[in-house]
Amino acid sequence: MTEGWFKPDRVFDGQDISDDMAVRVADGMIVETSRAPVPATAVSGLLTPGFVDLQVNGGGSVLLNNTPTAEGMAQIAAAHRRFGTVAILPTVITDDPAVLAQAAAAAIAARDNPDILGLHIEGPHISAAKRGTHRAAFIRPLDQVTLTIVSDLRKAGVAVMITLAPEAATLAQIASLAETGAIVSLGHTDATAEQVEAAIKAGARCATHLFNAMSPMTSRAPGAVGAILNAGIAFGMICDGVHVDDRMLRLALRACAAGSAPFLVSDAMATVGGETQFTLYDQTIRLKEGRLVNAEGNLAGAHLTQAEGMSRMVHQVRLALPDALRMVVTTPATLIGQPRLAHVSERSTDDLMLLDTANKVLGTMTQSLARSNV
Fold first, then answer.
1. Alpha-carbon span 198 to 169, nearest angstrom
2. Exposed (0-12), middle (13-18) or buried (19+): which is 303, by Cβ within 10 Å?
3. Span 51-328: which CATH code?
4. Within 10 A of 24 (CB to CB), how many other CB atoms are there?
5. How many Å apart are CA 235 and CA 228, to the nearest integer?
6. Across-strand partners of 364?
7. Does the pLDDT at position 307 exceed 80?
8. I want to staple 118 with a disulfide (CB 3.0 to 4.6 A). Which of 87, 138, 159, 221 is the partner?
9. Residues forming CATH 2.30.40.10 domain(s) in the chain
10. Is the N-terminal amide bond of 322 cis, ω within 30° of 0?
11. Is the pLDDT of residue 374 over 60?
12. Calpha distance 211→224 (Å, rounded)
């Protein structure tokens, strides 16, 4: 096992990038960092904690809705690890109640897997008008079935994010979910700004893929988008150049209120690290020119990794690299209650990535040291 002091070109420590930090490796772990001059072996690239993704529907030809098992979750996580994402929140979308129950049982079974952060329940308690690719037949108001599933997950120590539309739940139900410690995230909604604001006051503290599948912002009706940007809460965004125009991402980052915590999600489907098509609701979803579309022509998730989204934030949206890295590391890690994932120290070298000067993932630090024969 390679041990000793190593000096990457630069290091992202969860907040900023420094060019004078060395790290000490022992037993495959970063056990110490130092900015003082120390004898160290040079390592090419920018060292960063691996990426964190809170909305992952699939990967490696596996879709969670189709394979709602701990093994399925592990296969999805393994596919995303190939591209620099070391921790995911597997996401089950609107489906038969039995599928949600199976996914919840899988999340409990997978809770000792460090790559699996919990479960994201996206629907079925959403707006039919803003359902996107979610099947209309399964959409329903929030009910005791889901409330019990979320409660049981939390009692088992499993982190939960639940995406719902304010118009599909009562304020008391939203408060009840929030009291369990679940992250209530607003999305797939046609709600007014007032409804969104009431839901936030009741305990919602996040929004799901800003702009997509939500009531837009207009001059006299701020809608869900306007309310979210004004609220100072966390919100996810998809940066693939397909779901949201880059200019709108740029505008949202400039316009959001103090206290806002924007972060990137991939909304990735089974095609990431897998075949170019998959089945959802007995329909074939195909990858066409970077877009995943269903038979109705609607977008059906994204063919995207966190690494690609982060790189686009820098090169197309023109965000500073430390800010972009915080959006794929620090903010999602903090939101899901695992801030350690934004640290370099006390981390396995398997969980630390090296990026080249174009911000592309070169591989893990373990792989880099092995290639260098140091």
1. 11
2. buried
3. 3.20.20.140
4. 17
5. 8
6. 353
7. yes
8. 159
9. 4-49+343-372
10. no
11. no
12. 8
> CA dist 144 to 147, 149, 151, 177, 229, Å?
5, 8, 10, 11, 31
> CB count, 10 Å around CB of 69?
16
Distance, C-alpha 307 to centroid of its chain:
12
Residue ranges of the chain that CATH labels 3.20.20.140 = 51-328
3-state helix, strand, coil in the chain (%, to 5): 35, 30, 40
Q: Is the pLDDT of residue 373 over 70?
A: no
Nearest CA to 127 out of 140, 115, 143 is that of: 140
Residue at token pair 């839901």: 199
Distances from the Cα of 129 to the Cα of 110, 300, 351, angstroms: 34, 16, 40
Dmax over CA atoms of the chain, in Å, equals 64
CB of 187 closer than 8 Å to CB of 237: no
For the chain, the C-alpha Rg in angstroms (whole number) is 20
* 371 has a pLDDT exceeding 90: no
Q: For 4-49+343-372, CATH number? A: 2.30.40.10
pLDDT in tens, 200-224: 999 999 999 999 999 999 999 999 9
- 115, 190, 267, 351: which is the annotated catalytic residue? 267
Active site residue 267: yes
